[in-house]
Request: fold
Amino acid sequence: MSRYTGPVCRLCRREGQKLFLKGTKCFTEKCPVERRGYPPGQHGQSSARRRRVSEYALQLREKQKVKRIYGLSETPFRNLFEKASREGGVTGENLLVALESRLDNVVYRMAFASSRSQARQIVRHRHVLVNDRIVDIPSYQVNPGDEVRLSDKSKDLLPVQVALESKTRPSAVSWLAADDDSRTGRMLERPTRADIPLAVQEQLIVELYSK
Reply:
């Protein structure tokens, strides 16, 4: 699967808002979004002056924003959407719940990493156990009752300590319980849309893929 390796600040500028892709650095460094409030590229400033935005453009930008927040490329994101559309209930909400239930996102929500990209790396490097079994797949779906913890040799990793001591750690969510000292957490229940602190319009994504 392809992975974006360029400057993440360009992604934030393209969406016109801070996506906090760099974790604590987004709070300690001067953000390019604030200094250059227009899309990157040769025609960034001229396109920023355009007033009329099509319905398709709004839908596309919302999809791109959610993909970039969670660090997914098009294929796995589309597959997750297809799975969400086959489930009962509201497709957009099912999609966000599936994204939030990813192991890398759960590690990030438990404040064991400063960003989702860092959480993904921690999972890839086999530092995370789910129900006492090593899981190195960031897209692994965590279920209610599952225990997520760092391995004994990984509890004192510098990135983990920095994340836990950061004043800008992610806000606690009601559907997860985490203990900083033991580096252990548990999913208490499946999150609902009201439990997901994300300012996105998921219905626009549904409309885009439904065309």
